[in-house]
Amino acid sequence: MLSGFARTAAILVAFLLGAVLPQAHAAAGAIQWLIIGMLFLVFLGTTWTFQSIRRSQLVLLAANLFMAFAGLGLGWLVGGRDVGLAGFFAGIAPTAAAAPVIISFMRRDVTYVTAAFLLTNVVIAALLPVLLPWVLGEVDATLFRRIAGSIVLLIFTPLALALIVRRLHPQSITWPGRIRDVSFGAWMATLFLVMANASHFLRTQAGVSRLVLLEIAAVTLAVCVANFALGRWIGGRTHAAEASQSLGQKNTSFTLYLALAYASPLVALGPTCYILCHNLWNGWQLHRVHRPARPKPTPAPPDPLSLNK
């Protein structure tokens, strides 16, 4: 298994390679299949019942929806429609498939994050075909069906396949744990392709204002910081780290794909920036958890002279 330092370094390398190899954007179509594969493994290794849902996870779901519209409103005030949509696509993303993995590396309650992952992904995926046409200002049945089809492929297909495989072969529940590094590799490949796609867009769209790019980055950073902080507050004393990770680490690859398909590459920079923000924070958390503990100083032996006084 990779060490915490190796994982932190891999995240940075994936971003740097994507930035310097924009030609890899030609393989961006693989992003959806990487997402499907990662979600399949997460669903496969998940044991979850309705009894797993806590009140705080329902609050996290409400906060997830609230932050989407907060990002939309803040972005619209800062820079107009495109910046607002970038904030929305960054904020509406449900809990990331990798969030239970990251929380396991942090040695916290994986079950809590897994339940939040399933709850937010299923509910938000069900709501997006209704919300997106309204947010995009294109309310028609055709767009609804296209978005619904994309979401069924990305979320509900791997969920159904995982349930079928687990029913036919119960031992398959152990597969994700055995190939955890493979899942991490798929995550790194996704980050690489996302960054390459963003790099290609920025290099070819000379007409895009730097001010707009800074506005998107600022709004996205604000949404990211607010998510991690709000999640920590919602989790309280018992699940502060788990709730913070559930709300802060988002399945932005999912909403990035939707932004590219139904909005524009400029709007897709919102979830792209968010990927950078939350993964840099993840890298720091992994480094902090796995760094060697400082040895405690050995107390000096008592002075024999003082004992005789």
Describe this structure in words.
- It is a single chain.
- About 75% of the residues lie in helices and about 0% in strands.
- The chain is mainly alpha-helical and about 300 residues long.
- Helix 2 runs antiparallel to helix 9, helix 3 (about 55-80) packs parallel to helix 6 (about 110-135) and helix 4 (about 80-90) runs antiparallel to helix 12.
- The radius of gyration is 21 Å and the shape is globular.
Task: Indicate the CATH class.
Answer: Mainly Alpha
Distance N terminus to C terminus? 57 Å
Supply the CATH architecture. Answer: Up-down Bundle
Using the CA coordinates, give the radius of gyration: 21 Å
The CATH topology is what? Na+/H+ antiporter like fold
Integer average pLDDT: 83
Strand-residue proportion: under 5%
Count of domain modules: 1
Structural class: mainly alpha
Helix fraction bin? over 70%
- Count of DSSP H/I helices: 14
